[in-house]
Design a protein that fits this description.
Blueprint: H1 3-6, H2 25-29, H3 42-47, H4 54-65, H5 73-80, H6 87-91, H7 98-112, H8 115-128, H9 132-147, H10 156-160, H11 167-171, E1 177-178, E2 183-186, H12 191-195, H13 197-209, E3 213-216, H14 225-229, H15 233-247, E4 252-255, H16 258-264, H17 267-270, H18 278-285, E5 288-290, E6 304-308, H19 312-315, H20 321-330, E7 333-337, H21 351-354, H22 356-373, E8 377-379, H23 383-395, E9 401-403, H24 405-409
Parallel strand pairs: 2-3, 2-4, 4-5, 6-7, 6-8, 8-9
Antiparallel strand pairs: 1-3
Helix pairs in contact: 5-7, 15-18, 22-23
Amino acid sequence: MSDDELRPPPIRPANWVPGTEAPTDEDIVSCVSCGLCLPHCPTFRLTGRETASPRGRIAAMRAVAEGQATVDATFRTMMDECLACRACETACPSGVPFGRMIEAARAQVEATRPAAQRGPRAVGLRIVLPRPWAIYAAAAALGIAQALRLDRLAPASLRATTPRVSLGRLVRPLPRAMGTGPTASLLCGCVMDVAFRDVQRDTMHAVAGAGYRAVRGRSGGCCGALAMHYGHPDAARRMARQRIAEFETADVVVVNSAGCSNHMKDWGHLLADDPEWAARAEAVAVRVRDLLEIEVTPRARDLGPVACHDACHHVNGQALGPDLRRVVRAAGGTPVEVPGGGRCCGAAGLYSVFEPELSAELRRQKAEAIVATGAPVVAVANPGCAIQIAAGLRELDAKIRVIHPAQMIR
């Protein structure tokens, strides 16, 4: 019998939605179903269900690719319940690229989602996020609702994880540039620029203090990470092109949100099939630096113990766990490890909105772990994590301050 006859037949993507991105055959077969990822998967740990594990989700992808199943309600639930935290990637000895697989699977999910669910998601991801004026209008409306306490009409689960918007800070302009040296363009972004204005200002001070000319991005707007995570890759590519054109003249591009920096460093892959933009995307992507990667001047002060929360897109996407501790030490603090620190807090972009029950349990576990450190402060370098953890600490009535590393090093 020849080698060709012994080789297993190729997987044929018979049941993927035509014209929509899907996990590739090569990525699917890279998983050998060993199960070493299971203890590291937050949703599997919570539920004990194989269908809530990376191995189970890849098996579902394989079944659709082989024509044995379809992208139906069961498939959608399995992919929706995933946090896309990529802890399985860190644990996987075979290097299975689960992050890009779940993003492609979610593109399939969105293509088959009922219109009543698909419509509101599309408005936010495809219409609001690409337009800075729309982001600010939505933030202003939220700030007014919160000021008038109309937000109390929303479900408690949604209210707990909705960012607080200060109208006073929102209308106060941020400096366009400060410092001297190589040009460091700062991503304005979406949530950071409307809900964390003080962190944006402190980031500019920190970058300028590190020897750069810190410049706010010209146009503002989202990097496209949320659209990519939630099944709208075409919208993510449009936003990537906008930001790439904005940052091409910068020496470095500094990002103070873990999810954004991780996504932007992958722009080269995202636009690899676009002949016009592939080289431009890669040229900018290699200059992206998370704020934690910027060398900061040590401070002669004592901040005391600081609990270190590792955002998933730092430890699993960029291996920046040690950098957070370096920054804490440089700021005059003593890093304190959070028990189970590499486990997702349950924010995961929009996960707290779409999967509130699972998110709430993960939030409780993370808040309890932070309380157990005894530290009065927790350093959090991602907006979704900061909102989620602050909500969890409030629910425990814990008087622990959530701060961004930029607020320690400015």
